[in-house]
Design brief:
heterodimer, A: mainly alpha, B: 181 residues, mainly alpha, elongated
Chain lengths: 111, 181
Amino acid sequence: MNAEVNDVEALLRSALVPIEPSERMTDRLERSLSDITDIAAGELADWELSAMRDPRNWGRPAAALVVGGVAAGGLVLVRARQARRREGASVRALERSLRQVAGEIQSRLDG
Amino acid sequence: MGEVADKRRLDADFTELYRSHLRDVYSYAYYRVGDHHDAEDLTEQTFLQAYRHFERAQRESDGRPLRPWLIRIAHNLAANYYRDRSRKPQTHLEDAAILSAPHDTEELVEGRQELQHVLEGVALLPDDRREALIMRFALGMDNREIARALDRSEGATKVLIHRAIKQLEKGLEDRAGGDDR
């Protein structure tokens, strides 16, 4: 490759710099992603409720709820960032409470 | 319980993909459509579509990086964008420079006007050549990644990039010659 091509490559590196997305756009996108994650988690919860009608599955949905507490928070890192910006500690407190309830159910199942 | 655990792992993996490549997708989108508003829409649509097909993509990736797959989604959406709206790409250096504050362009080139000419030259290239240059220089993708994103062989990709650079170089020389006269 000759010097001119190298020069053009240097120019391209300077011209085509990576662009950071705006915070407004990032927030909007993360909300959308969290929403569709919640919908997917909701569908899973519906399946769990229908499965409860079968006694053979009674242990399973309760155990699934433990994991579901996290699954419902699907894009968990995204969600945590939004919580900090929009609602502060209240969302995190709610998530903590849900995890505690789920933990309690798991303890009872294990016991 | 397996399904829920799988979803949890999948979401965690997608979060990682999103965090690692948001800037890549946005940069690609911006240089492809040349407009921040449309670039935002394109980025959003890319990640929403990626989420829908993430499980399958992960299963079929065989451990390979998913960035080319993500960029390919953006590439297909951008193609639809132009087809639907009969638009041509535009690139506004001023906007790009404002948003790319971490890069000190002045140390590397003589001035803003030269960069403007480069961006205008890139915008005039055929679609495949322009895209290959965006992937190489704005996203830092290697030939193998670009080949996967464009669904070409590595050899064909190497030739594509070389020709793109040569065409751009000639365009810049012609322009410089015209300016001198």
